[in-house]
């Protein structure tokens, strides 16, 4: 099972996701893909199998992932102060991964109706539990 974690800015959310996924699914191959080198480096410190940076890394790894996880901004062009290009957002949105798990960490002008008032940490924990359930179902088939 190949899980691609995508993040930008400083990669703090991505690192938290990586650390929790590594603990929950030690057999999974977790790949960190950052929109910048700092984000990739920080996520890799969480214990990934590999890491890559930039638009082409997003395109390449989205095409090979079983699961993709990251902040909601990875499907919004110009999110993360412009770090998410239109091509990155398109590739994540149109990828052939079995599942894309998005964590609602959107600021500014995007308001998602129905989102509960939770901390980022709570959303990450919920995402990890959902990924764990999904992977368990895929491995038992």
Which keywords apply here?
141 residues; alpha/beta
Describe, in plain words, how this protein is organized in 3D:
With 141 residues, the chain is an alpha/beta fold. Helices cover 43% and strands 18% of the residues. The chain is built from six helices and five strands. Strands 3-2-1-4-5 form a five-stranded parallel beta sheet, with helices on both faces. Strand 2 (29-34), helix 2 (37-44) and strand 3 (50-53) form a beta-alpha-beta unit. The two termini are 13 Å apart.
Estimated share of beta-strand residues: 15-25%
The DSSP helix count reads: 6
**Physical arrangement of strands within the biggest beta sheet:** 3-2-1-4-5
Distance between the termini: 13 Å
Return the structural class: alpha/beta
**How would you state the average pLDDT, rounded?**
92
Dominant shape: globular
The major sheet is characterized as:
5 strands, parallel
CA-based gyration radius: 14 Å
Order of helices and strands: EHEHEHEHHEH
Q: Which residue ranges are poorly predicted, with pLDDT under 50 across at least 5 consecutive positions?
A: none
How many DSSP-defined strands? 5
Helix content: 40-55%
